[in-house]
From TrEMBL:
<protein>
    <submittedName>
        <fullName>Outer membrane export usher protein</fullName>
    </submittedName>
</protein>
<dbReference type="InterPro" id="IPR000015">
    <property type="entry name" value="Fimb_usher"/>
</dbReference>
<dbReference type="InterPro" id="IPR018030">
    <property type="entry name" value="Fimbrial_membr_usher_CS"/>
</dbReference>
<keyword id="KW-0812">Transmembrane</keyword>
<comment type="similarity">
    <text>Belongs to the fimbrial export usher family.</text>
</comment>
<dbReference type="GO" id="GO:0015473">
    <property type="term" value="F:fimbrial usher porin activity"/>
</dbReference>
<keyword id="KW-1029">Fimbrium biogenesis</keyword>
<keyword id="KW-0813">Transport</keyword>
<dbReference type="Pfam" id="PF00577">
    <property type="entry name" value="Usher"/>
</dbReference>
<dbReference type="GO" id="GO:0009297">
    <property type="term" value="P:pilus assembly"/>
</dbReference>
<keyword id="KW-0998">Cell outer membrane</keyword>
<dbReference type="GO" id="GO:0009279">
    <property type="term" value="C:cell outer membrane"/>
</dbReference>
<keyword id="KW-0472">Membrane</keyword>
<keyword id="KW-0732">Signal</keyword>
Length: 399
């Protein structure tokens, strides 16, 4: 079975048996924060979210901006790989950071877990290996939570220690440090440290939601357990069942260039009658190279009477990728009864409710996609509906 583990140490995928203390269900305010995955689809697309090589979420979305916010069942912390497969078979992918403030404990409460496991991912580029892991949390005075843990494997040793603060109305923060010793595929040995800061808070009075702000700094000799499982020092990850002939930049790895600094932020703001906007981004730097991984997303949505308007921008660039992927999208939704003569027959207005939707997107290569849709609900209770869509792109293809 796959266990929701590695709350403190950097994520691993594994099959395991575990001994742990049972605790009561914590309120939402004391739980970790799941990421909101956003993106832009140019057509009716399939969105797949993977973690450690495994598909953890898959859905189909309509053209335009989309948002996925129900990922609370993800197995552990660690980056998510988002793949958007368009109707023409093209795939756009990018990485979304996933970290959470450790679960805070009430004063005097102790929570522990001991795990014996076999590391296993869905990647053909990594080997399987047995390892052991232990974690411990203790609820201290003044809203503090002290936590630590360790991992032990044939080619990896790691220990970490951290401190979390429940700041009440000001949110929650945590600080931790990890010391690791690793042996890589070329049999070279390395020692290094990693330091992390995380903050989460919702400012209800201002309508601002800092879902997560964080920064991690690692020395040049720091590697994770996952890094030591690679069979080669560099390459592209391919999973079992993949039918892709062209490798994607987001799946490229190179153990000679270790991770250095990582900044991530996710902010949304309600503007009252003026709508709302969100801003999320991340930047990963590496040792021994100037190349970086970057992700930046911005969106604004508002409503003018019955007219809904929205715009979004998505920018992603992986290390080694020649050019960034950028997509800008505009969308609106308009009830068609606003264009019809007013009727005093409320039954007729309720029975025939229809609206028109339009989504337009353009990428950095100048490719434009337009989609126009019509949706209508029928019957008194609206239980019957139908939808018609027509799409067009700048290459002359209709959908």
């Amino acid at each position: 079975m796959i266990i929701r583990q590695a709350i403190f140490l950097i994520a691993s995928a594994f099959v395991a048996c575990s001994w742990r203390q049972m605790t009561n269900m914590l309120p939402d305010s004391l739980k970790g924060f799941a990421p909101v995955v956003r993106g832009i689809a140019k057509s009716n697309a399939q969105v797949t979210i993977k973690q450690n090589g495994y598909t953890i979420y898959q859905t189909y979305v309509s053209p335009g901006a989309f948002e996925i916010s129900d990922l609370y069942s993800t197995s552990s912390s660690g980056d998510l790989l988002v793949e958007i497969k368009e109707a023409d078979g093209s795939v756009n992918s990018y990485s979304v950071p996933f970290s959470s403030v450790p679960l805070l404990q009430r004063q005097g409460r102790i929570k522990y877990a001991v795990t014996l496991a076999k590391y296993r991912t869905n990647s053909n580029d990594q080997q399987e290996s047995k390892f052991a892991q232990a974690t411990l949390q203790w609820g201290g005075p003044w809203g503090t939570t002290w936590y630590g843990g360790g991992q032990y494997a044939e080619y990896y040793r790691a220990a970490m220690f951290g401190l979390g603060f429940n700041l009440g109305d000001f949110g929650a923060i945590s600080f931790d440090a990890t010391q690791a010793k690793s042996t890589l595929a070329d049999q070279s040995e390395h020692k290094g440290q990693s330091y992390r800061f995380l903050y989460a808070k919702t400012l209800n009075q201002l309508g601002t939601n800092f879902q997560l702000m964080g920064y991690r700094y690692s020395t040049s000799g720091f590697y994770t357990l996952s890094d030591t499982m690679y069979k080669h020092m560099d390459g592209y990850e391919f999973n079992d069942g993949d039918d892709e002939d062209t490798p994607m930049w987001s799946r490229y790895y190179n153990l000679f260039y270790t991770k250095r600094g990582k900044l991530q932020v996710n902010i949304s703001q309600q503007l009252g009658e003026y709508g709302s906007f969100y801003l999320s981004g991340s930047q990963q730097t590496y040792w021994h190279t100037d190349q970086q991984d970057r992700l930046l997303q911005f969106g604004y949505n508002t409503q003018i009477k019955d007219l809904s308007l929205g715009g979004s921008w998505n920018y992603s660039k992986s290390r080694g990728q020649p050019d960034a992927d950028q997509v800008f999208a505009l969308n609106f939704s308009l009830p068609l009864n606003l264009l019809l003569p007013k009727s005093n027959d409320s039954y007729t207005r309720k029975k025939n409710y229809a609206w028109m939707t339009s989504n337009t997107s353009i990428d950095n290569e100048g490719h434009t996609t337009q989609n126009l849709g019509l949706t209508e609900t029928l019957l008194d209770d609206g239980n019957l509906s139908y939808s018609v869509q027509q799409g067009y792109n700048s290459e002359g293809e209709n959908g």
